[in-house]
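Schema walk-through. Below, the input block comes first and the output block second. Nothing else is stored per chain. Lengths vary across the set, and this one has 256 residues.
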Amino acid sequence: MTSHLLSYIPSLPSNLRSVDARTASLATIGTLTALTSAYIVRDYNQWISFGSGGTPPTPSGYWRMTKLRWRAYWSGDDMRDPAPLFNVDGPQFLSSELLQRRGERPQILARTMPQRQKPEVLTPSVKDRLHGIPAKYCNENPDILTLDLSKTEGKSTDAIYAKPDLPGRHPSAQDKILGNEIAHVHPAENSLHVWLSGPDAKTVVEKGWGERFPLSAMGLCHPSLVMVYAPRSAEDVDVIEEIVKAGVGYLTGVKI
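--- output ---
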């Protein structure tokens, strides 16, 4: 028995090292799990706070959007590249003399839907004017436009809709997801989505006023839906109104 005990004693340090290694591995896994869980909870709450992009604000909706986010990331497609719009059909309503947007483009939040930018502070007058655009144009043009809650944004904000079956609507302005919706403003950070003709969408991206929509880039909806950046001044709202009017022209055939 004594010899057996003596033979066992030298093996204690290696056993202890093995236990220490397992403990360290478990601690590392526990730390990574805690950090990953904290990130997911934070990202999920932020996703809901900026609007879920028309997707149900549930864990299953978040998982669906996360898969699209990974798909967009691995595609390597740059939403600020206008090249995919070069061959998209449609008339041109925006002036070729549209001003180049001053300054840097805004920081875009790292998700596919909702497509949002980092919020910037607006003066109350600029914000009120911006968010009044849908009602303004619908009230001024009741024969071709209607105001309703945005279907593509989960009815979280007002949108401009073209009346159905307008004879002047361009044949290329057809999409099952977008339907008759032309434009809406995002309440959380004041950017917009506007459905434009191909040439007008190209102009908006080239001039720095916006970028392509990720789901359009994936072929899931019309290629010339664009995100228009939030304004920083009354002059920016002037340009945004011209962009929205171009969208109205595309879906109604009427230049307002």
